[in-house]
Structures are given as structure tokens and as C-alpha cells.
Design goal:
The structure is a single chain. The chain is of the alpha/beta class. It has a domain of about 300 residues: 4-Layer Sandwich (Purple Acid Phosphatase, chain A, domain 2), CATH 3.60.21. About 35% of the residues lie in helices and about 15% in strands. The strands form three sheets. A seven-stranded mixed β-sheet has the order 6-7-8-9-10-12-11. A six-stranded mixed β-sheet has the order 3-2-1-13-14-15, covered by helices on one side. Strand 11 and strand 12 form a beta hairpin.
Length: about 450
């Protein structure tokens, strides 16, 4: 085996880290769809996102009389995993990597990013926040191109704040792709990351921590945004030296009477007992303690690629789903005088494509393309675990794989789903617990009982 082959073996697991964390799935990159294989109707029961948005409109304060402050609107996007078009020809190697990965629609990530930028400019919020994993594999060129796109938002008069995720800094898998080959490319360290994005948050920082790279942004006299960097100086942790800085920032906000919204890439709590290693900030308990003492309203995170809320905690943690994954959620946070509303919106890539004059069928019907891509990916992963097992019929294997696709589609979108509809499949999975999927399905039962796309918090 050549040195380059060995490097590729190290590269592929890094690129596919997210799915290994989320689903504990193992699959072969060489696996191909069978003849006539089609999406097993995994997304057909999906509830329209407008239901949650209508609920938000009904419950949110109307403004006017009794409202002391103008509502402050924030758009949050996480886990775009953008790769510069100059780094891939979308050839066979790259296509296999993203097709048999974790369901991100990476073949169209440049278009998704442009559609998101256009949507933010159209909506004209008071602030745009990017919560980490801006890049696919940490390539400096991807960051440079992403920064240029985000500058369009800033030039439209909308401040932009960014922090890095675990895929963004000093990433060993940073590479460009051509045909069946790849080449390693530079990945920035924390300092270089901040230079690239200097005018996208860092130059507007009220307080900056040179140790961790964390900073604060004063969104108003009584609203502070805390951008917590748990990736620049440490892997998935806040450095010990940064806790005094964090305490001072929260004390200052409390003395001023300012509300605080915190943002981190990794999560503040264990959102699901099935997967949490590397997902929750390593010293999250200490951070939570300071947040509780400092009266932080909520924490906004990502990393899991799953839409999920821990809203019964003193400081709620909302994990917004990956913008690259169907249904391409982003978060809209509206801060009123007396309450805060979080709701998800679905990015309409097809509308952007039509306005941009694009003619590719997948883009013009992107909702259908992306839904099929994600659920077929999950279906394949489920099927890969059982396809060689004896004692199961082909029909039973199909039913079981469909269940994995349906549960994954609902969980990643943050939508309720009745697991009783999958009783047959769940019983079959229980009979082969060694695959891990029995525990996976069971762990989702509580999550699927609620809608994770909307939350209102009283702030007075």
C-alpha cells in the first residue's frame, strides 16, 4: 500500500465523522444502489414546517402598545460544511465520499450557500450568526470563499458573527479532489481562521478572549451575544484560562442589565443518550454553571446536524440542524421585550435557482431531490447492517431499513413522529441488538414525541 493510499484511509474516516457519531453506522464506500433502488417513501409523513411557523406567529407578541423595545431578529445557520468549487471537480472519488456519508447535499453546497446568503439579505434580520463547521474539511480556500460570500451580507447592512467548528481549524483531512485522486491542502489554525473572518464578527467584538478565540457582540444596550469558541485552543472544550474571562463577561452583562444569548458549536447538554461522546462540550458542566449564575437566556448550538431542544433546563440549549441536510433548516430568533421566540425556517433552494436562471432539474425541484438523497442514505446505512444476516427475509430487511430512514428523517428535522407505526420494524431490530439500531430507535422515542422546531421563552 502506498503512502498516499494510507493517507486516504486516514482521510475518509475524518470526512465521515459526523455519521459515525450520530448513528454509529458502518458502511462501505463501495456499496452501490441495487438495480431499480428508489427512495422507500421515508419522508411522506413529514408535517409542513408552516405549522410551527403559524404557531410562532400566533403566540409571539404583536408589538405596539406595551412593547418597550423593537423586536430584534437573528438568523442562525450551522454546519454548512461548504467546500470551495475550486477544490472539487465532483468527480468519482468526491461523489462517492459525499453520497455514502451522512446525508448532506454536498454536491450542491455552493448553491445552498448562495441561496442562504440571498435569503438572509432578503429577510434583512438585525444579525446573522454562523455557528461553526463552516467548511467541509477545513480547507483555507473554502474559508476564504465562504468569507467572501458572507461579506455580501455585511455589505447589505447586516452584521455577521462566526465561530469555528471542529471541522474548521487545523483539520488533517483538508483536501482537494480531482477524478479518483485527492491532494492535501492547508487548513488554518485558530489565529488564521480569525484573520480570514476578521470583519465578520471579530472586528466588532466588545470583549475578546485571546486564549480561546471567544468574543461578545453588543446587539443592543440590553442584549449581548456571546460567541463561545470551544475549538480554536482546545478540541471540544473551553480552556481553563478562559473561565475567568467568561465570568467577567457575564458579570458585566448582569451589572448592565443585559440579556445574554450564548452560541457554541458543540452542545451544552447530552441531547440523546445514544450519542454524546464528542458532541457535548467536554467541560460543559462548568460552563452551564456560569450560565445559570449569569442568567443566560439560552444557548444556540449545532454539531449534531439534528434539530433538537433541551428546553426543560434552566438554560435551554437549542441544536439547530445542519443547513446542508434536508430540510435545510435555519433558526430565526426574535427577541421581544419580555419574551424570546425561536423557530425554524426551511431554505427554499428551488426559488433561488429559478431567480438565478438555473436550469438543472435537481435544483428546480430541490426539496424532492434533497429529501430523497437524505432518506436513501439513511436507508442504505440501515440495510448495510443487516443485508448479510441470515434468518431475515428480503422483505423484512426492507421494512427495517425503511424504519431507520423514517426515524432519521423525522429526528434530523426535529418533527414529531409516532413510533407505533414502526412496531414491526422495531421488533425486528430488537431481535438483532448487536447492530446498534435497536438502541438507536429506542433512544429516539422521547425525541419524536415533541416538535423541536419552536420555542418561546419568557424573559421577564
Amino acid at each position: 500500500m502506498t503512502g498516499k493510499d494510507k493517507a486516504l484511509r486516514r482521510l475518509i474516516p475524518a470526512l465521515l465523522l459526523a455519521v459515525l457519531l450520530l448513528c454509529a453506522c458502518s458502511y462501505s464506500l463501495k456499496e452501490e444502489a441495487g438495480p431499480g433502488e428508489t427512495l422507500p417513501s421515508a419522508g411522506e409523513e413529514r408535517k409542513a414546517p408552516e405549522e410551527a411557523q403559524q404557531k410562532a406567529a400566533q403566540e409571539a407578541p404583536a408589538g405596539g402598545e406595551g412593547e418597550a423595545m423593537r423586536p430584534f431578529r437573528i438568523i442562525l445557520g450551522t454546519d454548512l460544511h461548504f467546500i470551495s468549487p475550486s477544490l472539487t471537480d465532483k468527480g468519482p472519488l468526491f461523489t462517492r465520499l459525499v453520497t455514502y456519508a451522512d446525508g448532506k447535499a454536498t454536491l450542491y453546497i455552493d448553491e445552498i450557500t448562495d441561496a442562504f446568503v440571498a435569503e438572509v439579505i432578503r429577510q434583512a434580520p438585525d444579525l446573522l450568526i454562523l455557528g461553526g463547521d463552516l467548511s467541509f474539511n477545513g480547507a483555507a480556500k473554502s474559508h476564504e470563499d465562504m468569507a467572501r460570500k458572507l461579506l455580501l451580507v455585511k455589505e447589505a447592512g447586516i452584521p455577521v458573527l462566526v465561530i469555528p467548528g471542529n471541522h474548521d481549524i487545523s483539520y488533517g483531512g483538508a483536501a482537494s479532489f480531482s477524478g479518483e485522486t485527492y491532494s492535501l491542502v492547508p487548513s488554518p489554525d485558530g489565529e488564521a481562521f480569525r484573520r480570514i473572518y476578521q470583519s465578520l464578527g471579530y472586528d466588532q467584538a466588545e470583549d475578546f478572549d485571546p486564549v480561546s478565540g471567544s468574543y461578545t457582540y453588543r446587539a443592543g444596550e440590553d442584549l449581548l451575544i456571546l460567541m463561545l469558541d470551544t475549538n480554536s485552543a482546545c478540541r471540544n472544550a473551553l480552556p481553563e484560562e478562559s473561565f475567568s474571562w467568561l465570568r467577567d463577561v457575564l458579570d458585566k452583562a448582569e451589572r448592565r442589565g443585559a440579556k445574554v444569548i450564548a452560541v457554541s458549536h458543540q452542545n451544552l447538554y447530552i441531547h440523546n443518550q445514544y450519542f454524546y461522546q464528542g458532541v457535548v462540550i467536554d467541560n460543559a458542566d462548568r460552563i452551564r454553571s456560569l450560565y445559570e449564575e449569569g442568567g443566560v437566556l439560552l444557548n444556540l448550538s449545532g454539531h449534531m446536524h439534528m434539530q433538537h431542544m433541551m428546553d426543560r433546563e434552566k438554560v435551554p440549549d437549542i441544536a439547530t440542524a445542519s443547513l446542508a441536510v434536508y430540510p435545510h433548516h435555519y433558526g430565526l430568533i426574535t427577541v421581544y421585550d419580555g419574551s424570546l421566540v425561536y423557530e425554524t425556517k426551511d431554505l427554499d433552494v428551488s426559488a433561488w435557482a429559478r431567480e438565478a436562471g438555473r436550469t438543472e432539474p435537481d435544483l428546480l425541484d430541490f426539496d424532492n431531490y434533497s429529501r430523497n438523497f437524505f432518506t436513501l442514505t439513511m436507508y442504505r446505512q440501515g440495510l448495510a447492517r443487516i443485508k448479510d444476516l441470515e434468518g431475515l427475509t428480503d422483505l423484512q430487511k426492507t421494512v427495517m431499513a425503511r424504519a431507520v430512514a423514517r426515524v432519521s428523517a423525522a429526528c434530523f428535522a426535529g418533527e414529531p413522529y409516532d413510533l407505533k407505526r414502526l412496531r414491526e420494524a422495531a421488533d425486528l431490530w430488537k431481535g438483532i441488538s448487536e447492530t446498534g439500531y435497536s438502541a438507536y430507535l429506542e433512544s429516539m422515542a422521547e425525541d419524536l414525541a415533541k416538535d423541536h422546531r419552536y420555542l418561546r421563552i419568557r424573559t421577564k
